[in-house]
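In this supplementary section we document a worked example of the pipeline. Step one takes a protein sequence of length 300 as its only input; no multiple sequence alignment statistics are reported here. Step two produces a three-dimensional model, which step three serialises into structure tokens for compact storage. The input and output of this example are shown verbatim.
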Amino acid sequence: MSHATTATAHAVLPLETRLARFPAKQVDIAQQHIVSYREADSARGAALPLVLLHGIGSGAASWVQQLEALGATRRVLAWDAPGYGESTPVAAASPVASDYANVLKAWLDALGVARCVLVGHSLGAIVAGAFAAANPARVAGLLLISPAGGYGAAEPEVRASKRDARLAMLAGLGPAGLAETRSANMLSPHADETARDWVRWNMSRVVPHGYAQATHLLANADLAADLAAFTGRVAVAVGAKDSITLPAACARLARIARAPFQTVPRAGHAGYIEAPTAYNTILDTFCRASDASAGNRSFE
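The serialised model returned by step three reads:
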């Protein structure tokens, strides 16, 4: 069955019903430190595992349509970042990308994932880039979707302003208020009500402490520096209607990474939610090319 047919078949079910097929799991990565995640594990053949990292206002559940479509051909793992879902927060009050990348490494170790295709959306791209730069042999392909670059290279007052504005918004609105006032910004005008409801559902469930730490991470990070250091396979994709990580900014990161760059028509920041068929095709194509370059010749 094609990805498009699969998506159509699943679309008639409520998203929470579909999500129930991929229940949240937990794994201990250190004493009193856990990572929660969701997994599609029906396929354990020669294909590389696919690892999905969500953005600042989301969680593992946002990837349900990718778990459905891509889990038929490979193992697919979507984590709740530290401080999200049931995952233990990182220790630092104002963390840097390596704090999250170290947790990612320990989580993959615990799950027996030696090498993978790594996908980061928005803030997840910052974590993915840091992990790839530090562990290049473990990343057969790095795909960045609407990547956030971080403000680590900006002037201190700019970093502080960006950080403090988001922290004030969190304090004033809380997760439910964020979801009501900010979720529409994640999507294009073309998104349907199901996509809007799903983005709102995910955003309303962020944990304030974890979101605050992720806000510090965004202020401290410099994805461009990690991309310049990583010499493996990279690709960048962004929705043509993305108003959060603008296509021009994403194209700049692609140039730094010496990577192909693609825009997806009629898609916004959370394009993989509102345009799953297009993004699943991008993911599947990139995964198969990564399989082939890694020596899994049956996937050429």
